[in-house]
Amino acid sequence: MVLLSTGDISLGQFVLLSQMVYFLPTSIGSLLNTVWEYQDCSVSIQRFKTFMEDSQLNEGDVKIYSIDSITFENVEVILNSHTISPEINLSVEKGDFVLIKGENGAGKSSLIRILSKLLPLECGNIHINHIDLNKVEKRSLRERLSVATQTSYIFQNSLEENVFLSDGNNNIYMKMKQILSIDDKLTQKNVRVLSGGERQKINLMRAFVRDKEIMILDEPFSGLD
């Protein structure tokens, strides 16, 4: 008011300055929210790009058009030169349901990453349809896998956009909404405030709607009531 009374600024300039001061906290808050949202999704985006935009997706000599069998022979999970799992010998045929149990840190999640060719197989052999995993083309393999990981990577989008990241079966989507008791309240909820269980529901739906030949669920009921 001192500047106005002394004539250093006009009434219009004073009103404009007052509005700027009034809206400044809101603008700063919006900027901070944008930074927080970017931090929330940057890791998810990077992991998604690693899986979907691998520059070596065509790596491998043999394309596969179905998965009839998966065989693990003397497979050990090795991370940072340390063996973290016992030898795994397992044969899985189409239509089988297999449960792999183990303590935390026993290499279960790493085994999934090896099968998806996200980690190298350093010990033992894995065969897809009797073909060495190292010879199987990454793209054709991943197009036949649907994986629900332990960590739910949720983007700042709607429920449907989070579920249908690439392709998906809408009939399965509607059925999964019923099975997991997902109502309009959840579909309209801000993803920033989703609980761990709600995030896991989205994670499971994402895997199921892809409707692939091989479904891999890594601790699928974690966080669910």
From TrEMBL:
Q: Name one Pfam family in it.
A: ABC_tran
Q: PANTHER family in the record, alphabetically? A: ATP-BINDING CASSETTE SUB-FAMILY B, ATP-BINDING CASSETTE SUB-FAMILY B MEMBER 6
What residues does the ABC transporter domain cover? 70-225
Q: Which domain of life is it from?
A: Bacteria
Record SUPFAM superfamilies? P-loop containing nucleoside triphosphate hydrolases (SSF52540)
Q: Which GO terms describe its molecular function?
A: ATP binding; ATP hydrolysis activity; ATPase-coupled lipid transmembrane transporter activity
* Classification via PROSITE patterns: ABC_TRANSPORTER_2 (PS50893)
What species is this protein from? Candidatus Enterococcus dunnyi
Protein name listed in UniProt = ABC transporter domain-containing protein
Coiled coil (UniProt feature): none
